[in-house]
Specification:
- The chain is built from 21 helices and 17 strands.
- By secondary structure, the protein is an alpha+beta fold.
- The strands form six sheets. The chain has a five-stranded mixed β-sheet, with helices on both faces. It has a four-stranded antiparallel β-sheet with strand order 4-5-3-6, with helices on one face. It has a two-stranded antiparallel ribbon with strand order 1-2.
Length: 576
């Protein structure tokens, strides 16, 4: 079956090499005749069921639910596309391990926040645009294949909201706009994120650097000119701004991103907590049946799919409490109080509670936690560190040592409900700040610890990144596209040419460093401007045990886990 937990590199390769309609059917594991029937021959009015849901701003949103056979085809295509799509760090909608919480975190503690909504987001993406993305990189399909794939995804010349493929297709469509808006925002010292059609910009500057107005201006105000630049980027990418939903606020007001408040940290609206408490009170005082009856009479006016079963009062309540746990964390006191109250009313309810006893690991780079996660899994398979359990901060942005040190200094100021361990790359400039000479780690107090990567036995370097824990031949492993990491010692220090291969590293000045370091960009040959594999994709291949990456030696990582075990042992003997 194609619906595997993690798609293999073989499937990715087969998808990229699609060259006919029959090859599409084979990959989606459906008969060619069935595929053509459900995509082209069945009448349009039988393909989808239309229903409407009310918008918060008024009016209705049209939802198109595909019939089951078509939905199955779309799900399979969506699964492949999800594994091929490499999201920019500014994208948080419809991405694994990203959500409204990760989106909101990017804008916490900022002085200004600008929210911009794109008008008629899915309907504005027409058949031609969808067909077009399948004819360019990374697909470069023939017109025939691109047309069939677009027909699978589209309905009535647009992306139907309700089809499994629509979210990932919209992310591919928005990729160019995301790059442009990211460059635009960084140029004016702003942070930018996108969650579907919600664009968010924030800054710590005293004045927000650009103004967005529905009317055109010929004004000397530089901020208005920058606003026009922003509007041009959006319109050039085929979208239209919904000016009714453009909102600029400062930190003296409630900053809201995708429904969460962002002033200090991602948080839920207080109204939700009050509503949950009222629901719990009604259940306890009047009983479940009467509480449910009153709730649906007063609150539940949602439009649903005609075939969708109405959820129970209990399920709605548990869902709302779980949402608070997702946003505020399952160790949060408010979440735990609500959790215990609903369990008192019905002990059979199962929900996840906080991980107070499980260390929380924060690493310097987005690839670092992937190596540690893969290493612990491999070592535990061999019967080692079986009692060691930990949770990782699975972020995708680059942090760097100074940002990690800043986090360390902030969280040590108040007691932490569980152990927080911050792991730094080995850099001589920072060792004395974050590691102890005798214990190899530093106890900051309040359950906060830090250490630098210990030196692996096969390296003489003083500066160490996690990739150097692997052997040279492992580091040089190629992915299914022929890309790989390079070691700095592979290149001539004067010319930048590779000592044995026909390629060149362009940043020759960096080769003067006596320490061996990893090169994951700026390596070109006569055919491609960059043949290097990024560290993050290298780490992803190791974590998912992709082809050629499933038999790496993780023995050097034992040193890291031994330090973590010593920290846990010390924490048991100390008060917060």
């Amino acid at each position: 079956m194609i619906l595997l937990r993690t798609i293999s590199e073989e499937y990715k390769s087969k998808f990229i090499k699609l060259n006919s309609e029959r090859s599409v059917a084979d990959l989606l594991e459906i008969k060619y005749s069935s595929l053509i029937y459900y995509v082209r021959k069945i009448s349009s009015d039988k393909k989808y069921t239309k229903f409407c849901v009310p918008k918060k701003s008024g009016g209705e949103r049209e939802i198109y639910a595909p019939i089951e056979p078509l939905k199955l085809i779309q799900r399979r295509l969506n699964f492949i596309l999800q594994n091929i799509y490499e999201p920019n760090y500014c994208v948080h909608g419809f991405i694994k391990n990203r959500d409204i919480v990760t989106n909101t975190k990017n804008h916490s503690k900022q002085k200004y926040l600008l929210n911009v909504d794109l008008k008629d987001f899915f309907p504005s993406i027409n058949f031609g645009r969808v067909r077009g993305i399948f004819m360019v990189y990374p697909f470069i399909f023939s017109p025939t294949v691109a047309t069939l794939l677009a027909q699978i995804c589209c309905f009535n010349n647009q992306l139907p909201q309700g089809a499994p493929t629509s979210p990932i297709i919209s992310n591919f469509i928005c990729a160019r706009m995301d790059r442009q808006l990211l460059n635009f925002s960084q140029g004016y010292k702003c942070r930018y994120t996108r969650y579907a059609d919600d664009l968010s910009f924030s800054t710590y500057l005293h004045d927000f650097p650009f103004i967005i107005s529905e009317n055109e201006h010929n004004d000397e105000d530089e901020r208005i000119n920058r606003g026009e630049e922003f509007k041009n980027i959006v319109s050039d990418n085929g979208f239209e701004i919904n000016f009714k939903k453009v909102r600029l606020r400062n930190n003296k007001q409630r900053l809201e991103v995708t429904g969460l408040t962002a002033n200090r940290f991602p948080n839920v609206n207080r109204k939700l907590v009050r509503q949950i408490r009222a629901m719990l009170h009604a259940w306890k005082k009047f009983g479940l049946e009467k509480a449910e009856e009153e709730y649906f009479k007063r609150y539940d006016n949602r439009y649903r799919h005609p075939e969708q079963q109405k959820p129970s009062f209990k399920d709605i309540l548990v869902g709302k409490i779980s949402f608070i746990g997702m946003v505020r964390g399952r160790t949060n006191q408010i979440y735990k109080k609500l959790y215990f109250k609903v369990r008192d009313l019905d002990p059979t309810i199962k929900m996840k509670i906080g991980l107070e006893g499980v260390p929380f690991i924060i690493t310097e780079g987005s690839s670092d936690w992937k190596y540690l996660k893969a290493a612990l899994k491999a070592l535990q398979k061999n019967g080692e560190f079986l009692n060691l359990n930990m949770e990782f901060s699975e972020y995708e942005n680059f942090m760097g040592s100074q940002e990690l040190l800043k986090i360390c200094k902030e969280i040590r100021l108040r007691p932490q409900p569980r152990i927080n361990i911050l792991i730094f790359d080995r850099d001589l400039k920072i060792i004395t700040s974050v590691a102890g000479w005798k214990t190899h780690y530093r106890n900051w107090g309040n359950n906060v610890y830090s250490f630098v990567l210990p030196k692996p036995t096969h390296r003489q370097n003083e500066d160490i990144s996690p990739e150097l824990y692997f052997k040279d031949e492992e580091i040089k492993t190629k992915d299914s596209y022929g890309r790989r990491l390079f070691l700095s010692k592979e290149f001539d220090k004067i010319s930048g040419k590779h000592i044995s291969e026909d390629c060149r590293y362009s940043k020759v000045d960096k080769l003067n460093n006596e320490n061996i370091f990893i090169i994951d960009s700026d390596v070109s040959d006569s055919h491609n401007p960059n043949i290097a594999l990024s560290k993050n994709n290298f780490a992803k291949n190791i974590l998912s045990e992709s082809e050629n990456f499933s038999k790496f030696d993780f023995s050097e990582f034992k040193k890291i886990f031994e330090i973590i075990e010593r920290i846990i042992e010390e924490s048991k003997n100390h008060y917060l």
